[in-house]
Specification:
Blueprint lengths: L1 E6 L3 H4 L6 H16 L3 E7 L9 H5 L25 E4 L7 H8 L4 E7 L1 H15 L4 E10 L3 H13 L3 E3 L1
Parallel strand pairs: 1-2, 1-4, 2-3, 4-5, 5-6
Helix pairs in contact: 5-6
């Protein structure tokens, strides 16, 4: 089976607390990718609680974001018509994602895109590649954005090193 995983295309990462021009710029490309994809599309959603600042992540990144049931936690409105399955994750990578993919059947191809290339996209891509070493795992760098352009490029290079295909 073929899968597209759209990582954390949420209001707080696009227009909210951690939003950026680079994140905003990829939204139309991600919409087109989702619309054209011939396979199963899954979305991940960064999900934190009110206690975010007491977590390890919150102490290292003290910007409250993606708190469950807030406006910033929501998938961006442009993608909402295409959301059929969402995987909520309390951290960068979803350890449940490989099991969820396997529940669909054979995992042949997995493409990932979204935010942020250098944190959540790379984390999930590596988890998927580790779980399905014979599957073709691809990250679409044209439909992804990092915290900075430099960290985006560094993450793409790191993924190539572990046999993840990269589209630029």
């Amino acid at each position: 089976m073929k899968f597209l995983i759209v990582v954390d295309m949420q209001e707080d990462f696009v227009r909210g607390a951690l939003g950026s021009a680079a994140a905003e710029a990829i939204v139309p490309r991600v919409v087109e990718k989702v619309k054209a994809f011939d396979g199963t599309v899954l979305f991940t959603r960064d999900t934190h609680g009110e206690d975010y600042r007491q977590t390890q992540e919150g102490r290292k990144l003290p910007v409250v974001h993606c708190v469950k049931d807030t406006a910033g936690w929501q998938i961006v409105s442009e993608l909402l018509p295409y959301v059929t399955r969402v995987v909520d994750k309390p951290t960068f990578g979803s350890v449940d994602l490989p099991r969820i993919l396997a529940d669909y059947g054979d995992v042949d191809e997995v493409t990932l895109c979204g935010l942020c290339t250098d944190i959540c996209v790379i984390s999930n891509a590596m988890l998927v590649k580790a779980a399905f070493p014979e599957a073709t795992v691809t990250v679409d760098g044209t439909c992804s954005a990092g915290v900075s352009e430099e960290s985006h490029r560094t993450a793409l290079q790191a993924m190539r090193a572990v046999q993840i295909e990269v589209v630029e």
